[in-house]
Automatic annotation (TrEMBL):
Protein name as it appears in the record: Family 20 glycosylhydrolase
Organism from which the protein derives: Chitinophaga eiseniae
Molecular function (Gene Ontology), one example: beta-N-acetylhexosaminidase activity
Family according to the record: Belongs to the glycosyl hydrolase 20 family.
Alphabetized UniProt keyword annotations: Glycosidase, Hydrolase, Signal
The keyword Signal is annotated on this UniProt entry: yes
Active site: E321 (proton donor)
Glycoside hydrolase family 20 catalytic domain residues: 160-476
The keyword Disulfide bond belongs to this UniProt entry's keyword annotation: no
Membrane spanning residue stretches: none
UniProt xrefs under SUPFAM superfamilies: (Trans)glycosidases (SSF51445), beta-N-acetylhexosaminidase-like domain (SSF55545), Concanavalin A-like lectins/glucanases (SSF49899)
Domain of life: Bacteria
Length: 696
């Protein structure tokens, strides 16, 4: 048994100078929490002259890790650029080395030894060293100067080998940039398994009960079947290869999923003859030999050849929610694709369905891993007895379905923190350390296609869950601190160096930015000036910023502000502004003086357009405030609430089900005006607050 020196450091928030340098240091707070900690006295200090030093024998293996650490330290330390060297460390250096002798740490464990002069990260594997660098970065993030690490020794190792997240990109497209950011975000929390669900379809009842009209998408470029690739968003083969390479450099495994034989409308729209006339066109016809020919070709396109598209060790073949009456055909299909994928040197994952699809047709077990999502579809005890490896993915605990009204909109984090870890699969709990429970994974399913949910809305749901579930999958249960204490300290840990997908901004007393007439300046919470940047075809005058339409804008120091916020401004539009005239813009959204042809104030993001029932009068000053949170977006005029755009229920003819349309906005701040469609008029007294419904 490993001897544990864990001290939780419940009172430890931001490290401040030398306030605790004469006492034995408590464990620094990181997510996931350290398994073992032995504190000493004092602190290691990163300096401008510090270097990342590689042990000569490990230099080649750790070069990529050192480069990632070097890049990540730049935004965190506000510009300290550490050189990378090979040799012996000196005072202020970070020393990286492989230590194959410490086999007790396993494949991903590491040791951080922080002295006053040198901070060393050692591990049996390159991935272990990489995880040690994530711990270093998190501790530096919480330090007020981003340069101190408490002296002591951390021995850290994961409780579970698979620590995952499933993202449904089939029913909602997520940009390649989002996926790349998520690789880094997951890595920051030592989450090592990114399962990307590449195809799916909407529900027929929301599309006139017509399969031909129902949304379906397959997100990869295809040369075999060019018509298969979704028109509204996809990834080229090289982009997907590059994403997997990036993930590997950050310690994350990409697990691509092609979901068959249900959830398969994208394939049957391409080849209608392989759709099931008995069970619906989202089911493949498993009695038709052409079905196997087509789906074989799909898998082979991404697995075959000297430069395969799927470069990782595992591929997911779906196999979920097929009609029970066709259990024997389903089992034969599942076995066929397990063996086909394995023929290309990959290991296979499947969704648990063999209790639902009981039968006599054998399905391969050895080396196959099953996502255990619903015990009625795959009984965990029975699957364990058969010999399947299992990833705990229980829907009643871990499924996020945004704004759908079932499963979770936001996960129940206190319950997860207090009661769940991967050995809990639905209502079945296996013994701690069961070797067939490889780990866990939580999921986002975008069932309600077209419901207004954005990438940023999804991230708002995932971020707090990632923090809690990384804790439970790496650290396991922690009786030394309550969920409330964990959550309070977790608020000081972000998304990784330089990342701010949530648009969180700090401000003095909540005021983030302020621009007054004739003054090109604002102050942040540290009292630093935050001037407007580039001003193009616009002018700061005594009465405000004059914006002249078309390409006319002034850049602010921040791109956007996320939930919760209030943006106040006073505007005097010229007469005759064109439709879609823009007040504020960023890469994710625009706020418009005139939304399309309505003539009314509104906003647009990710292809969705929303309109307030209010027209801003021309040639007179009007004080406006727009406030947003994860529930919706509100408009105030001259201090009075005019409209609250929150979830809006829409119905469908002949269908009892309804859909909630989300009307949220992460407020765009990169430009006052726009690079193409700016409004004409004057704007002044801009105030940005990081609290909702803040009115003066």
């Amino acid at each position: 048994m490993k001897k544990t020196f864990l001290i939780t450091g419940l009172a430890l928030g931001f490290f401040q100078g030398n306030a605790w340098s004469q006492t034995t240091n408590p464990a620094p707070f990181v997510i996931p929490g350290l398994q073992e900690w032995q504190g000493s006295k004092g602190q290691f200090t990163l300096q401008p002259a510090s270097a990342i030093v590689l042990e000569p024998a490990s230099a080649q293996a750790l070069s990529a890790t050192a480069q990632v650490l070097q890049q990540d330290l730049l935004p965190l330390t506000h510009g300290i650029s550490l050189s990378i060297k090979t040799g012996t460390p000196t005072a202020g250096d970070i020393f990286l080395r492989l230590n194959s002798a410490d086999t007790a740490l396993g494949k991903e464990g590491y040791v951080v030894t922080a002295g006053k002069d040198v901070l060393q990260i050692a591990a049996p594997s390159t991935r272990g060293v990489f995880w040690g660098t994530r711990t270093l970065l998190q501790v530096l993030e919480q330090d007020s100067l981003h340069t101190h690490f408490p002296c002591g020794t951390a021995r850290d190792y994961p409780r579970y080998a698979v620590r995952g997240f499933v993202l449904d990109v089939g029913r909602k497209f997520f940009s390649l940039d989002f996926l790349r950011q998520y690789v880094k975000f997951m890595s920051y929390y030592k989450m090592n398994d990114f399962h990307i669900h590449l195809n799916d379809n909407g529900f027929k009842q929301f599309f006139g009960k017509n399969w031909d009209s129902t949304y379906a998408a397959f997100r990869l470029e295809s040369d075999f079947y060019p018509g298969l690739t979704a028109k509204d968003g996809s990834y080229t083969k090289q982009e997907f290869r590059d994403l997997q390479a990036l993930a590997a450099s950050y310690g994350v495994n990409i697990v691509p999923e092609i979901d068959v034989p249900a959830h398969s409308l994208a394939f049957t729209k391409l080849r209608p003859e392989i759709g099931s006339k008995k069970y619906g066109m989202d089911h493949l016809d498993l009695d038709n030999p052409v079905t196997y020919q087509v789906i074989d070709s799909v898998f082979m396109e991404y697995l075959a050849g000297p430069n395969p598209v799927f470069t990782g060790q595992e591929v997911h073949i779906g196999t979920d929610e097929y009609a029970k009456a066709a259990a024997e055909q389903f089992r034969a299909f599942t076995d066929h694709y397990i063996r086909l994928v394995e023929n290309y040197g990959k290991k296979v994952r499947v969704w648990g369905a063999l209790t639902h699809a009981q039968g006599n047709t054998p399905v391969k077990v050895k080396d196959v891993t099953m996502n255990m999502w619903y015990n009625g579809y795959a009984d965990p005890v029975a699957m364990k007895k058969l010999g399947y490896n299992m990833i705990s993915t229980p829907d009643g605990w871990l499924y996020i379905v945004p704004a759908a009204g079932y499963y979770y909109d936001y996960l129940n984090l206190p319950q997860l923190y207090n009661k769940w870890e991967p050995v809990q699969i639905g209502d079945v709990r296996f013994n701690d350390g069961d070797p067939q429970v490889l780990g866990g994974s939580f999921a986002v399913w975008n069932d309600h296609v077209g419901n207004g949910i954005t990438e940023q809305d999804v991230h708002d749901r995932v971020f707090p869950a990632m923090q809690v579930l990384s804790q439970k999958m790496w650290r396991g249960a922690d009786s030394t601190q309550s969920y409330a204490v964990f959550a309070a300290q977790a608020a000081n840990t972000g998304e990784g160096p330089g990342a701010n997908m949530r648009g969180k901004l700090k401000g003095k007393n909540g005021l983030v930015l302020q621009y007054e007439p004739g003054k090109n300046k604002s102050k942040d919470n540290s009292g630093n000036q935050r001037n407007l940047g580039k001003i193009t075809n616009a002018a700061l005058q005594h009465d405000g910023l004059h914006v002249n339409g078309g390409r006319s804008f002034a850049q602010t120091p921040v791109r956007e502000i996320g939930y919760d916020y209030t943006v106040m401004f006073t505007v005097k539009p010229d007469a005759g502004n064109a439709p879609n005239a823009v007040l504020f813009s960023s890469p994710h959204a625009t706020v418009k003086l005139k939304q399309q042809q309505t003539g009314k104030l509104g906003f647009s993001r990710e292809g969705y357009d929303y309109t307030f029932d209010y027209t801003v009068p021309a040639n007179q000053w009007t004080k406006l405030a727009i406030s947003g949170d994860h529930k919706g977006t509100r408009l105030y005029v001259n201090g009075q609430l005019v409209q609250n755009l929150e979830k809006k229920k829409i119905g469908f003819a002949g269908v009892k089900d309804s859909m909630m349309i989300v009307q949220t906005l992460v407020f765009p701040l990169q430009n006052i005006g726009d690079t193409a469609h700016a409004f004409k008029g004057v704007i002044k007294d801009i105030q940005v607050w990081n609290t909702a419904d803040k009115l003066k």
